[in-house]
Amino acid sequence: RKEVEQDPGPFNVPEGATVAFNCTYSNSASQSFFWYRQDCRKEPKLLMSVYSSGNEDGRFTAQLNRASQYISLLIRDSKLSDSATYLCVAREGNQFYFGTGTSLTVIP
Amino acid sequence: ETGVTQTPRHLVMGMTNKKSLKCEQHLGHNAMYWYKQSAKKPLELMFVYNFKEQTENNSVPSRFSPECPNSSHLFLHLHTLQPEDSALYLCASSITATENSPLHFGNGTRLTVT
């Protein structure tokens, strides 16, 4: 059983579209949550932390539902540069549980 | 970003070779990690060091041997690896291993075992 599950996609969307990724986690003791983006053959880079009240950073909005053990990422007004793999992460203590990632391609 | 740097970027080694991966962080963090990333799999935690003490060894074969001389440096010594060990090896750091802070990754070493 995977600790963190994500739809692998791929998601192919036109520029300017809004796209949403979902993620579920199995460990109810998870304390903190993050979204990372990973470009092809590069390291994961922190996109944003996810807070219980939901949080926004420019075109990106993250939501957490602890009752359903569900995390989401919404990207508005997609840019070509948003093309990447998005990794959902749940942390408990020193254990970070990564999803396999959701692939996004933004098409001109 | 140069907060966490890894060398070498690429490494090709035979199964009988001995090599070491190096990681250095300039973020003032106290926890450092080694992860393995294989194609189509989630990142796999290998080792965790918190304030230079190893706190996690995720059933990693003994052909991988970590070393953490101080909070800023982390090594992964490799010996008699197998072809299935070919992967991207990522070093990361965080403020500590217990606080709810994110990981910051280095640029990785892409390892090929022939």
As a whole number of angstroms, the C-alpha radius of gyration of chain B is: 13 Å
What is the N-to-C order of secondary-structure elements of chain B (H for helix, E for strand)?
A: EEEEEEEEEEE
Query: What fraction of residues of chain B sit in β-strands?
Result: over 45%
**Amino-to-carboxy terminus distance of chain B:** 32 Å
The N- to C-terminal Cα distance of chain A equals 38 Å
Whole-number average pLDDT of chain A?
94
Task: Indicate the overall shape of chain B.
Answer: globular
The total strand number of chain B stands at 11
Number of helices of chain B: 0
Structural class of chain B: mainly beta
The total strand number of chain A stands at 11
Low-confidence stretches of chain A: none
Run of helices and strands of chain A: EEEEEEEEEEE
Q: Which class best fits the helix and strand makeup of chain A?
A: mainly beta
Helix content of chain A: under 10%
Largest sheet of chain A: 6 strands, mixed
The major beta sheet of chain B can be summarized as:
7 strands, mixed
Gyration radius over CA of chain A: 13 Å
Q: Which consecutive residue ranges of chain B, at least 5 long each, have pLDDT under 50?
A: none
Oligomeric state of the chains in view: heterodimer
